[in-house]
Amino acid sequence: MDVKELAEQISVRFSEQGVHVPVEEVEQRLTSLVNEFKVPVDEAKRSVLSYFAKRYTKDGVPDVAETVYTRIAEINAEDKWVNLKAKVVQLWEPNALSIAQVGLLGDESGAIKFTSWASANLPILQEGGSYSIRSVVTKSWQGRFSVSLNKATSIAPLDEEIAVGRAETEIQGAIIDVQSGSGLIKRCPECNRVIVKGYCTEHGKVSGVYDLRVKGVLDNGDVVTDVLFNRELTERLTGITLEDAKEMAIEALDHNVVADKIKSLVIGRYYVLRGNKTPRWLLVTDFAKLQTIDEQDIDSILERSEGYL
Ligand SMILES: [Zn+2]
Asked: How far is the CA of 97 from the centre of ligand 1 (A)?
C-alpha cells in the first residue's frame, strides 16, 4: 500500500469516529516519517494515528491548548517529536542546498541547533524572533542534540519574547591561524551565502554584498578550535572597518590584502572568546584581548634595563 492510500485509510478511520482530519495533513506526515526519517510503514501508521488522535478534537479543530512544550535542556534522546517555544538566537550559513535555514534556537533552559529543510518549505524564521515551533524531531550527532524542522512542523510567531538562558562557551588561547575565506568577502544578496567569483551556488551570477569576517583557529594549549568573528567583531578585533577594508582592496587591486593585514594583527595574540558552539565553530559573540609580553615589549624592557647593568 502506498502512502497516499494509507493516508486516505487513516483519514476515513477518523471520520468514522466523527473526527475530521484532512487527508493532506496525514499524507504529509506519513511521507515525512517514511521517506525522510525512514520509519517503517507500520510504525509510521501507528505514530500518525496517535498524533492526530491527540491533536484533533471532535470538531476537527487542532487543540492548541493541549500542546505540551519541551524545554530545550530536557531534550535527551533522538528521534523524538517535540514542540518548542523558542527564540532564534542565531542564523548560520546553510552549507547545502537541501537546507533552507540553520541556526540556534534558545529558551530559558538552553540552546539547540536547528535545521529547517528546504523540502519542508516552512516559513522563514527571523533572527531574534520568538516562535512556537511544533512537531520537530530531535537528532543527535557526536553527543550533541539538534532539532530538525520538517514537513510536519508548524511555526507560529509568539507575541511574548522568549528569554534565552546563557548557553555560551568561553575559551582562552592564542590565535594560531587565519583561514582562507577570511577578510573581505562578498555574499549573495538573496541567500547570504558567500559567493565565489560573483557566483552563488544557488542563485548563479549575482552582484554581491561586501562583508568582513575572520575564520580563525584558536589554540588553548590543549585543543584547537575554529572560531568565527562576524563583521562587527572583526572590526573590533582588527580596527579595520568594512569601509577601510574596501579601500585597502581597491588601492591594492586585491582582496587578499585585507586577510594578510588581519593575519599580521591577530596571529600569535592571546584572547578570551565567548560564543556559541556549533559542531565545528565557536561563533564568537564577545571577546577580550589578553595582555602578553610580546617581543617588542621584551626589547624595550631590555633597552631600559641596560642603563642599570
Ligand atoms: Zn544565493
From this structure: 10
- Is-contact 216 253, C-beta < 8 A? no
Residue 194 Cα to ligand 1 middle (Å): 8
**Torsion region of 183: left, alpha or beta (phi above 0 gives left; psi -120 to 50 gives alpha):** left
Question: Could you tell me the three cell numbers for 158?
Answer: 509568539
Q: How far is CA 248 from the centre of its chain?
A: 31
Distance 131 CA to ligand 1 centre (A): 26
Kindly give the distance from the C-alpha atom of residue 199 to the centroid of ligand 1, in angstroms, as a whole number. Answer: 8
Beta-bridge partners for 82: 136
| Average pLDDT of the chain to the nearest whole number | 86
Residues 52-61 have a mean pLDDT of 62
Measured in Å, residue 196 CA sits from the centre of ligand 1 at 11
Distance from residue 190's CA to the centre of ligand 1 (Å) = 5
Per residue in 180-223, pLDDT tens? 999 999 999 888 888 988 999 889 999 999 999 999 999 999 89
Residue type, 243: E
| pTM strictly above 0.70 | no
CB atoms within 10 A of CB 284: 23
**pLDDT tens, 159-184?**
999 988 766 788 999 999 999 999 99
152 CA → ligand 1 middle, Å: 26
Q: Which residue has the cell 569601509?
A: 243
Does the domain at 169-294 match CATH 3.40.50.620? Answer given as no
Residue 62 confidence class, pLDDT cut points 50, 70, 90: very low
Q: Decide which of 3.30.200.20, 1.10.1740.10, 2.40.50.140, 2.40.30.10 is the CATH code for 67-157.
A: 2.40.50.140
